[in-house]
């Protein structure tokens, strides 16, 4: 028997606890959603492990969650018969935060409660939200397959530390017991708890049970009976018919699968039949996660096979450039014992990935092409949060390149702001008579692009230039040469050929000017011998005396600068 030990929380946990208790109070009901969500995950994990080890169920194979309360003790208990936790798991799961990037995330908190509350929402509060309503939390747990004597009790007041000790626990799974703070007594009611569960947790696929109530004539109050009733619909939400699912239910389900706090931007729900049969319920979040650029970041798709949870973060089901998509894919064809290795090679997985990619692009096109202001605004939000990631798709997904190109948005010399809201189609629709190319400039910032001397001649002629200033742009452009048959041309490269945009008189004048400066140009070439490859008279400038240009087939100055900055 291991002695009771007292351990300190990881520094970030302490910060999270402190912040949550102070800033999420107005959202306090979410504690129940979070604890039920964990109980449901624990049931999923047990079902998954039991695929290869049926004995884990013992004589208890009806997975369920119970919510109990005790008015006298002022406690609420959330009890599951899921996977449970070992002592080591208790310490690592309930004493630290496993998410990568946690330190950086906490360094961003400002101390302003409202701003921080929104940030914490994106981070996901999880188990620790119990302390919003409780000043003492006890977790009694026993890992599936372990002996009754191997139970573990975790206990904390949510300050700096917690204790762990061994206990006897008759059944498998986890009981989370909340000792409510003074003033939270209104939660001690069947009606109240049921209404919170129906609001936030109706989508949970296993039954959430509560005790029935009965009026006691003698005591003149309701008493709890030893009889249980199911409070939620208890069927997998994605398997229900679309018409039976409300927007709120879709949104709550999103929060469960994504660990996000805010509602999604949009979603798509389909049953796909044909060469591969599966159901997909895919969401676009409203905010980029704090770890969008973290290479080790978990993806967002949960894989189920015929309703049985198989794995989180099935990255094979979505291309990398759509890594921000959250949701569920439930396959009818994959074997239950599918592994990550099998996923990589599976034809079914390839079909699912291709089909899901098309769905996501379709969902984005719907927003992008909509006439409704609400959808337009949503696309603006989408582009701001995820546009840079979507651009990766130009290089990554040759099949859908044209569709992705239509979804791109840029800042433009036609506008007075850095807002990226001009599409290639907008540009093409505004092209001048005789213009056959799409002109762009790349730079490290909007201001640098806007004030580039290369733009002068275009301004003068009233020709629009797209201003590309995101880090991925240069890379993306190496995969994108044209749009709709119109060549994409950098205004900073090569011998700028404005074609029909120049009239005959101009051409003649240019030729004359060139020959009159011939001598000077030769002198300059000599002087700059080892610094410049060529010196030319240019007509692309109207105000600046000179500018540097890159050779048509060479790296652009901006890319060279980026490579240098990256130490190459
Ligand atoms: P998340 O659910 O996002 O992983 P939480 O803070 O909600 O984060 O929970 C932390 C971890 O604690 C979970 O990932 C899980 O491993 C463990 N855990 C929490 N509740 C339970 C439970 N009821 N049964 C088993 N494990 C649990
Ligand atoms: Mg959780």
Automatic annotation (TrEMBL):
It comes from Massilia horti. InterPro entries: HATPase_C_sf, HATPase_dom, Heat_shock_protein_90_CS, HSP90_C, Hsp90_fam, Hsp90_N, Ribosomal_Su5_D2-typ_SF. Residues 1-340 are annotated as: A. ATP binds at residues 34, 38, 80, 85, 99-101, 122-127, 174, 340. GO terms for molecular function: ATP binding; ATP hydrolysis activity; ATP-dependent protein folding chaperone; unfolded protein binding. It comes from the Bacteria. Pfam families: HATPase_c_3 (PF13589), HSP90 (PF00183). Molecular chaperone. Has ATPase activity. Keywords: ATP-binding, Chaperone, Cytoplasm, Nucleotide-binding, Stress response. HAMAP family: HSP90. Signal peptide: none annotated. This is Chaperone protein HtpG. GO terms for cellular component: cytoplasm. Homodimer. Residues 27-184 form the Histidine kinase/HSP90-like ATPase domain. Belongs to the heat shock protein 90 family. NCBIfam families: PRK05218.1. Its main location: cytoplasm. It is found in: Cytoplasm.
């Amino acid at each position: 028997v291991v002695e009771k030990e007292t351990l300190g929380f990881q520094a970030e946990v302490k910060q999270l606890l402190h912040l949550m208790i102070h800033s999420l109070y107005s959202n306090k009901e979410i504690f129940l959603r979070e604890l039920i969500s964990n109980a449901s995950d624990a049931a999923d994990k047990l079902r998954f492990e039991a695929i290869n080890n049926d004995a884990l169920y013992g004589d208890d194979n009806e997975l369920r969650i119970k919510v109990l309360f005790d008015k006298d003790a002022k406690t609420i208990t959330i009890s599951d018969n899921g996977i449970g936790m070992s002592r080591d798991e208790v310490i690592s799961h309930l004493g630290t935060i496993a998410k990568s990037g946690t330190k950086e995330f906490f360094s961003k908190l400002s101390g302003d409660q409202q701003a921080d509350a929104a940030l914490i929402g994106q981070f996901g509060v999880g188990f620790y939200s119990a302390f919003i309503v409780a000043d003492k939390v006890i977790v009694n747990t026993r890992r599936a397959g372990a002996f009754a004597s191997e139970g573990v009790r975790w206990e904390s007041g949510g300050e700096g530390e917690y204790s762990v000790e061994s206990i006897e626990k008759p059944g498998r799974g986890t009981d989370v017991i909340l000792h409510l703070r003074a003033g939270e007594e209104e939660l001690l009611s069947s009606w109240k708890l049921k209404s919170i569960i129906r609001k936030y947790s109706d989508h949970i696929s296993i039954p959430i049970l509560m005790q029935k109530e009965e009026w006691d004539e003698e005591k003149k109050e309701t008493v709890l009976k030893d009889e249980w009733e199911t409070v939620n619909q208890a069927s997998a939400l994605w398997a229900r018919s679309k018409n039976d699912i409300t927007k709120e239910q879709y949104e709550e389900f999103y929060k469960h699968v994504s660990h996000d706090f805010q509602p999604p931007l949009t979603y798509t729900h389909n049953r796909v039949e044909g060469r591969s049969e599966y159901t997909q319920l895919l969401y676009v979040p409203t905010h980029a996660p704090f770890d969008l650029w973290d290479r080790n970041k978990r993806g967002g798709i949960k894989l189920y096979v015929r309703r049985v949870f198989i794995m989180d973060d099935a990255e094979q089901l979505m291309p990398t450039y759509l890594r921000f998509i959250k949701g569920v894919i439930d396959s009818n064809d994959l074997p239950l014992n599918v592994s990550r290795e099998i996923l990589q090679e599976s034809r079914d997985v390839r079909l699912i990935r291709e089909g899901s990619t098309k769905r996501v692009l379709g969902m984005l096109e719907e927003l992008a092409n909509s006439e409704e202001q609400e959808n337009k605004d949503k696309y603006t939000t989408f582009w701001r949060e995820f546009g840079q990631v979507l651009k990766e798709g130009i290089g990554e997904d040759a099949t859908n390149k044209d569709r992705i190109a239509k979804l791109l948005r840029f800042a433009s010399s036609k506008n007075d702001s850095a807002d990226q809201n001009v599409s290639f189609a907008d540009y093409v629709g505004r092209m001048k008579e005789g213009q056959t190319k799409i002109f762009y400039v790349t730079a490290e910032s909007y201001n640098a692009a806007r004030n580039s001397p290369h733009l002068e001649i275009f301004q003068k002629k009233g020709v629009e230039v797209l201003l590309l200033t995101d880090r991925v742009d240069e890379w993306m452009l190496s995969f994108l040469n044209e749009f709709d048959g119109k060549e994409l041309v950098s205004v900073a490269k090569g011998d700028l050929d404005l074609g029909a945009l120049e009239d005959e008189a101009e051409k003649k004048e240019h030729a004359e000017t060139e020959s009159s400066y011939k001598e000077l140009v030769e002198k300059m070439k000599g002087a700059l011998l080892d610094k410049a490859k060529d010196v030319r008279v240019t007509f692309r400038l109207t105000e600046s005396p000179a500018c540097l240009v890159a050779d048509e087939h060479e790296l652009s100055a901006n890319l060279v600068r980026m490579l240098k900055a990256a130490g190459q």
